[in-house]
Amino acid sequence: MAQPDLRVILDGDSSRLYRQGEQVKGRVVLVLQEPEDIRALKLNFVGACITRTTRPIYLGANGADARKSRRDFEERIELFNLERIFVSGGSLTASKHCWNFEFTFPLLTESRHSRWGQGTKYAKDPHPLPPSFQVQTNSPGGQAAISYDLHAQLVRYGSKSSVRANQMVAYQPKSRNEALEVPITSRVLYNQTFKPFKSSRTAMDKVLRKVTRKASATSISPRIIPTIHHPERIAPRQNILLGLSLSVAEANAEPDERLECILDSLTISIATYTSSRCGKSLKQPEDVMSKHMTCIQKQNMNKPLTFDAPTPLTTNFRLVDDAECVPSFRTYSINRAYSMTVTMGIRCRERKFVIKCSMPLEILPRMTLAPLNTRVRDDDEVPVDPLPLYMPRAPSSELAPDYETLYSLSPTPSYARSFADAISSSTGSGASTPQSGASTPASEIEQPVFAVGAGC
């Protein structure tokens, strides 16, 4: 008995990346070799969040099953489930049958979890769909995945097994910011204030100043407050603009002309944090993974820092649009977040300072490519020099040279004659027509002698 052939075929490219609100179109194909009684033929469009992990089992001396050293945990949460039934009872002939389908990605998830189910880092209420995602956790056998699939199932009568077919669909949310310019946020680093000069006050002077609350006549070193300018949200292909500005802490104070700060080193790194949980209780296992990558590392920059305007730290610094650049999201059992750390080495005269700042970074979905400008320009827009008109001319009376004259089979000397010998030979002969044979008799031709091992 031949097994039915069931397939799910998408229209267009099967590896296409779908966006929010777009339609998924295709057809379900069933090929039967013989008539078949069908109980049901249905297609489900399912979005699911799947987490798996393992934990070691600690057994006592009287352990029942000491061969199994780890316990498996798995949880599957459906984000949505759309169903369409093509056949509900009936008989199909031995032939090829096709059914068209059309689904639309929902705007929000359909599931809802309790308030205290998953903790604060996971979503509980319906939220926008997360992107397609899959990663291996740091636990043996651990996995966290978000998948969108088309499941076709053929249910037959009797003891015959069901026939299933599956087609995966890639999804990513729409970008919330299509502009190439990224808004910049300023963050004042009060806790990293530094003094470029060493204080010349004595210990007694410091005590008297605190008691009397009066400034002493001794010169006080100014305090410099750094401010970093950075974006909070970024998308692939957008320029990550980072800047640093300095200001004097004292009120109504201006920077001294002798004060000069130099940016000596710069290190920028981006960290990825992924957490997944199995189970609805807080006691269930949770896998937390982190990955740090250094993007920029420069030494001996010797770049002056100004007090009146921010000094740019980066130029053409962009995210690589690859599989690792997954947009930030938070769903029922998986969380994906990023942070950026900037470490700067500043030199003021003989003193050196290190300023380090870590900030959360939200990665947005990749921007849609703008359509190419394929409009054909008119002749009036682009000046073009016209080609000259074709003018017919009379055929030339010059004949092609004779082949036997150019390539004579008579023996010729293997050495090259000089240009002066050729001129004297042609003028001394006085012939008006070129000779087709060699001018040197065959008896006087010297055969070349090749020395073995001689260089060129």
TrEMBL record:
GO molecular function (one): protein-macromolecule adaptor activity
Organism expressing this protein natively: Polyplosphaeria fusca
Transmembrane parts of this sequence: none
Gene3D superfamilies (alphabetical): 2.60.40.640
PANTHER family hit by this protein: ARRESTIN DOMAIN CONTAINING PROTEIN, PH-RESPONSE REGULATOR PROTEIN PALF_RIM8
Entry GO terms, CC: cytosol; plasma membrane
GO biological process, one term: ubiquitin-dependent endocytosis
The name this protein goes by in its record: Arrestin-like N-terminal domain-containing protein
Pfam annotation, one family: Arrestin_N
Arrestin-like N-terminal domain sequence ranges: 8-107
